[in-house]
Amino acid sequence: MSRIGARLTGGPGRRTAADAPTDAPTDAATEAPVAPGRVPLAGHAPWIHRDAPGFFRELRHHGPVTKIYIGPRQVHAVNSHEIVRELLTVQARAFDKGAMFDALRVPLGDGLITAAGDRHLRHRRLMQPAFHHDRIAGYARIMSERSLARAAVWEPGTTLDLVPEIHRLTLDILLRTLFADPQDPELRTAVKDWLSVKYHSMRLALSPLQAWAERLPLPAGWRPPNAGPLRRLVAVQHRIIETYRADGRDRGDLLSMLLAAGGPDGGLTDAEVTDELITLFLAGTGTVSASLAWTLHEISRRPDVQRRIHDELDAVLAGRPPGFEDLPALVYTRQVLTEVLRLHPPSWLLMRRAVRPVTLGGVRLSPGAEVFFSPYALHRDPQLYENPDDFDPERWSHDAAAKAPRHTYLPFGAGSRLCIGEDFAWTELTLALAAFTAHRRLTPAGSTPVRTLVGTVLRPDRLPLTAHARPS
Length: 472
Ligand code: HEM
Hints:
Layout: H1 3-10, H2 45-50, H3 52-58, E1 65-70, E2 73-78, H4 81-88, E3 95-96, H5 99-108, H6 117-127, H7 133-152, E4 159-161, H8 162-178, H9 185-196, H10 201-205, H11 208-215, H12 228-247, H13 254-260, H14 270-300, H15 303-317, H16 331-343, E5 350-354, E6 358-360, E7 363-365, E8 370-373, H17 375-379, H18 398-402, H19 422-437, E9 440-444, E10 452-454, E11 458-460, E12 464-469
Parallel strand pairs: 2-8
Antiparallel strand pairs: 1-2, 3-5, 4-12, 5-8, 6-7, 9-12, 10-11
Helix pairs in contact: 7-8, 7-19, 8-14, 9-12, 12-14, 14-16, 14-19, 15-16
Protoporphyrin IX containing FE is lined by residues 112-113, 124, 279-280, 283-284, 287-288, 291, 346-347, 350, 411-413, 417, 419-421, 424-425.
Region (Disordered): 1-32
Organism: Streptomyces nigrescens
Keywords: Heme, Iron, Metal-binding, Monooxygenase, Oxidoreductase
């Protein structure tokens, strides 16, 4: 058991009556046990603060559903993949996304990520065609071109911190797939300014001070972030939408699809389109950047894995740029990415809130009850994955992958809230990885270990790598 696990079972500070050990008789049909380690006022927050992913990972030792406290706020943590499946599929309609998303709705509008109930269903149906296979084939050309262009600036023999490079690349790709003319200088500046505002949503969701501030007449811990950048971005988007509506042309981009979307109860209004564009900026940049950064980090330390990627790229591409039609043949490259998203799922902690009385995994929840589950914790559960901390793309070879139980691999979630950008993300990641490795061998630079930054996504703090020319 890891150190945090030992701390949890040993329990810091005073054990309270509520800290019943998991094996104590509990009425499983009504109450989940409280995870040990709860301290007065702060609840479990000190352990979460020290190592949040590790904390959620260790909870499985204390039951399939455990109660944890963030200050006074009670949260049910689901630690079993079967109950996560129940939450995301069978019982999905009994839940919305919860308090963190209510807070995000203020600065971000009500796009697909925050929307609930019928609004979510309607928007999901209207947006789905923009992510259809045929459209992604069109976006793939942009992904390949932009990735090759960025990789080309990286001269052999030089060292670069890839974190900002990758961030620039994913933003560039998203802008060019959303808007056929992304060179609009006002748009670029508005998006950059808006992305630079920190929303700290995960930090607030895990903050005991925030939880107390919501209950006591204290000055609120949360204040809406600077609204200026959002206002400017919305204004630029409205101007662009007007131009598109005026001629009604399909420019091959995502925005054309959002504007063309229609159904029995009409299409998306301009304000709804604006909310969705903002949601896509948020959902489609940090997640892909983190995944690509972790991928380059892992393969830079594994010459054997890089060699197999090189062999595959040489055989499939024979020196030409990678394209959408190559994806089915890049089998090993996909295995590598699948393993990276298991080991480092960017969306490491997901949340729901009961909207009506519901029984989940035998535990009764009242309306308003909050539920957390962690794809990171599931992906590193030794009962689900052998040697879960090892980076082993071989576990996704055809025969091995076929044996994996369902709903144990959740980098993109599942059920009706499954990531709408999943195919977009696989395409972008595969083409970008091919572009960065086809003509280069990568090695880590320096000996300082890469640290994991924990926010809404898990990402490496820095990624200094040296590029070497590959003999052709
Ligand atoms: C590796 C990259 C990505 C990862 C790991 C990822 C992960 C996820 C996860 C886990 C969810 C479900 C959240 C939940 O159930 O609470 C989600 C939802 C979503 N993602 Fe992604 N995502 C990625 C890339 C993208 C991209 C590229 C886009 C768009 C261009 C996108 C747009 C969305 C949207 C709009 C939702 C909300 C879907 C809904 O609620 O119906 N994501 N994503």
